[in-house]
Design goal:
Elements lengths: L10 H30 L11 H27 L8 H34 L2
Helix pairs in contact: 1-2, 1-3, 2-3
C-alpha cells in the first residue's frame, strides 16, 4: 500500500488555528478595548473618542468573532481524516480545535453576561 503524502498545511489544521486565533484574538481585543476605555475614558470624550454606537459595534464584532470560534473548531474536528494526517498532527489539531471551542464558549458566555445589556441597549 502506498504511503499517503502528508500535507502539513491541511484544511483541518488551518481551521483549528483559526478557531484558536479567533478565541484568543477576540478575548485580547476585548481586554484591550477595556484598558483603552479606562485609560482614556473613550465614552466620555466629546471629540476624538468613541461614540456609543461605535463602542457597541466594536463589542458586537468581538462577540461575533468569539462566537465564530465555536463552529470553526467543530468544522476542524469534522474535517479530520486520520488516514491522511499523522497521529502526532491529529493530536495537535484536536487540541487546538477543542481549546478554541472551549475558549469561544467561555468568551461568548462572559461577553453575554458583561456586555450583552450594553449591546442590546437595555
Amino acid at each position: 500500500m502506498a504511503a499517503v503524502s502528508f500535507d502539513s498545511h491541511s484544511w483541518a489544521s488551518r481551521i483549528s488555528w483559526l478557531s484558536l486565533g479567533l478565541a484568543f484574538g477576540c478575548a485580547g481585543a476585548y481586554v484591550l478595548l477595556q484598558i483603552l476605555d479606562e485609560t482614556f475614558a473613550l465614552q466620555s470624550v466629546a471629540s476624538g473618542g468613541l461614540s456609543q454606537s461605535s463602542l457597541r459595534l466594536a463589542l458586537a464584532l468581538i462577540w461575533v468573532g468569539e462566537t465564530l470560534a465555536i463552529p470553526s473548531g467543530g468544522l476542524s474536528l469534522w474535517m479530520l481524516r486520520f488516514g491522511e494526517i499523522p497521529l502526532e498532527a491529529v493530536d495537535g489539531i484536536m487540541l487546538r480545535s477543542l481549546a478554541g471551542m472551549a475558549l469561544g464558549l467561555c468568551g461568548t458566555f462572559v461577553l453575554w453576561l458583561l456586555v450583552g445589556q450594553i449591546i442590546l441597549g437595555n
